[in-house]
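Dear all,

This email documents one entry for the complex benchmark we are building for the journal club exercise. For each entry we list the sequence lines for every component of the assembly. Then comes the predicted three-dimensional structure of the complex as a token string, followed by one or two observations. Please use this as the template for your own entries, and keep the labels exactly as they appear.
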Amino acid sequence: MMLSCKETTRLLSQGEDRKLAFGERVALRVHLAICKGCRNVSAQFKFLRLATRNLSRDGTEENIA
Amino acid sequence: MGARYRVSSPLSSSPQTPDFRGQIESLRPYLLRYASLQLRHPEAAEDAVQEALLAALAAGETAFGGRSNLRTWLTGILKHKIVDAIRRQSRERPAREFDPDGESEFDALFDGRGHWQEMPDAWQQPEGALQQKQFLAALEACLAALPERTARVFMMREHLGLETAEICKELDVTATHCWVMLHRARMALRLCLEMNWFKK
């Protein structure tokens, strides 16, 4: 089954929150191999996690005081 | 410094030095900011911080015992108070009817076959942005623009680092509902940051 980009963003997001099934992982990998836009979104979702964890943590104390 | 302490009588029996109280009190602004990121209502954030500080003082300096950084210890207590507050709020205001397929807000990004209308570009030097106060302010503004419930689920997941199962339990929603809200939050945040920070 070929995933659309829309379905891919949904699976990329869910991949951050649950373990994807084998078939989902294969379909995702096939799609990402051919779609640069979805690869970029994948990196952006991971970056969002990193950035959100950074809010009011060490290193941003000067924002808080 | 003693006059600054807002907490007094219920704690007078707990053994602690004025210095310990002073250190705890000095972290109030940090904790308030932390709570405000999770709980949108300022009073709810104030209450959670107050409860956490009271619990810390009641537990006393011996409970802290210098095991870890004081701020880390207090933040740990505060997380529990935040989850309590979220649980109370979701009991008071139960989830409204929810349509898991209603993702139309992002449909415009895709064509009829579900492919990108406009291919998303890579963000330039995102790691560098993390060091910039202005970027963190932009991220907070984008979070504040999310629907309240969506923002809450996203922050429970990504800021508090809770598992989806815990979030579902606290908010009394299904896992599917949680995943949809998290997906919406991520899609909205990436659009918001793209427009307000990673401009083309």
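Observations: Residues 1-14 of chain B have pLDDT under 50 and may be disordered. Chain B touches chain A through 46 residues (CB under 8 Å).
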